[in-house]
Amino acid sequence: MSRRTETQEEEAGAIDLTPMLDVVFIMLIFFIVTASFIKEPGVEVNRPEANTAESKKNASILVAINSSNEIWIDKQMVDPRQVRPTIERLHAENPKGGIVVQADDEANVEAMAQIVEAARELGILDVSVATEKN
Questions:
Q1: Within this chain, do residues 30 and 53 fall inside the same structural domain, yes or no?
Q2: Ordered per-residue pLDDT tens for the chain, 134 residues
Q3: Name one GO cellular component term (predicted).
Q4: Rg (Cα) of the chain, in Å, rounded?
Q5: Which of 44, 65, 91, 110 is most buried when burial is the number of CB atoms within 10 A of its CB?
Q6: Are strands 71-73 and 76-78 parallel, antiparallel or unpaired?
Q7: How far is 41 from 63, CA to CA, in rounded Å?
Q8: The domain containing residue 102 runs over which residues?
Q9: CA–CA separation, 116 vs 111, rounded Å?
Q10: CB within 8 A of 108, min separation 6: which ones?
Q11: In this structure, are residues 100 and 88 in contact, taking their beta carbons and an 8 Å threshold?
């Protein structure tokens, strides 16, 4: 009889952790889904400074041009002839987003003009140049 009362007391004093674990997992899933992920261009770029810099929220395609005029899209170096098809493919995945070009201080304007021209040919009018806020 004494064993029976001990097990009943242990069961009465035990805390069920299952609901708490369920809540923790639901919170984890919520934070993962709602987190905003920072897009990286794949190469380090020294952006020019500007006094009128504004934050851009709906950029879906991030293009980087380094100091040696190499074009990087989606963390991969892209041949200049493949810029338009790459932008077209990425824009098809998210048609509402725009393009942000991160050009290095020492990059040629020709590479940036090529990216802007490819975007305009595809009908993408939301093209921005990334700068450092002065």
A1: no
A2: 556 656 666 666 677 888 889 999 999 998 888 776 656 666 666 666 666 666 666 667 888 888 888 898 888 888 989 989 998 998 888 888 888 888 888 888 888 889 889 989 988 888 888 777 66
A3: plasma membrane
A4: 26
A5: 65
A6: antiparallel
A7: 6
A8: 49-133
A9: 9
A10: 69
A11: no
